[in-house]
Amino acid sequence: MRIIGGKLGGRKLLAAKNFHYRPTLDIVKEGIFNIVGDCERDIVLDLFSGTGSLGIEALSRGADKAVFVDSDFSSISVLKKNLNILKVNNGFEIFKMDFRQFVSYSSKKKMKFNKIFIDPPFKKKYWIEVINLLSKYDILEKDGVIIVEYPANVDVMKEDLPFTIIKNKKYGNTCILILKGVNNV
Questions:
Q1: Which of 21, 114, 116, 141 could form a disulfide with 16 if both were Cys (CB 3.0 to 4.6 A apart)?
Q2: Cα separations (Å) of 147 from 17, 47, 118?
Q3: Nearest-angstrom CA–CA distance, 11 and 1
Q4: How much of the chain, in percent, has pLDDT values that exceed 70?
Q5: Angle between helical axes of 99-108 and 126-136 (0-180°, round to 10)
Q6: pTM surpassing 0.70?
Q7: pLDDT tens digits for 84-100?
Q8: For the chain, where are the E strands, in sequence order?
């Protein structure tokens, strides 16, 4: 696992030893950033951040700030080690909390994000719940996008999504779904 592009491109990341952890493959990460582009001046949210791969990639590509959210202590520990090893000393916040709590909290604090990365455990259908939560709480910037990793065996077209699908692309067992607010297209 490594950073693909930007100022930290090519640097390796530590991986969690947690059996629930499913790292974002380099080809998937490359596909995501080829679609959404660089992150100049963005504020990004990395929900289910794990070791921070997507948020750190966004920082490497120019994001002003990355907010990492995960409820697993061991993932947060590895995330902190990765930030330390890469000498990323500012431009981030880490929240150890459930995604539901964080989305509500960030709405109350009037936090807004240009890009929201959602990479939940595939065995649970959290991605559907998160998308519905995001439509309920106003934390996506007007021109922002939501990037969702989900299992390839799920038919996303059967879901009644509250956002407009910009792109849906398959990479082996993983699919990437790019969403934009209905009024933002």
A1: 21
A2: 25, 10, 6
A3: 9
A4: 94
A5: 10
A6: yes
A7: 999 999 999 999 999 99
A8: 43-47, 65-70, 92-96, 113-118, 140-151, 163-171, 174-181
CA–CA gap between residue 140 and residue 163 (Å, rounded): 11
Give the DSSP H or E segment for 100. Answer: helix 99-108
Nearest to 95 by CA among 20, 45, 144: 45
Contact between 147 and 77 (Cβ < 8 Å): no
Q: What is the CA radius of gyration of the chain?
A: 15
Cα–Cα distances (Å) from 123 to 20, 101, 149, 152, in that order, read: 9, 21, 12, 12
Domains belonging to the chain, first-starting first, are 43-184 (3.40.50.150)
What single string gives the DSSP state of each residue in 11-31? Answer: -B------TT--PPPHHHHHH
Helix/strand/coil for 74:
helix
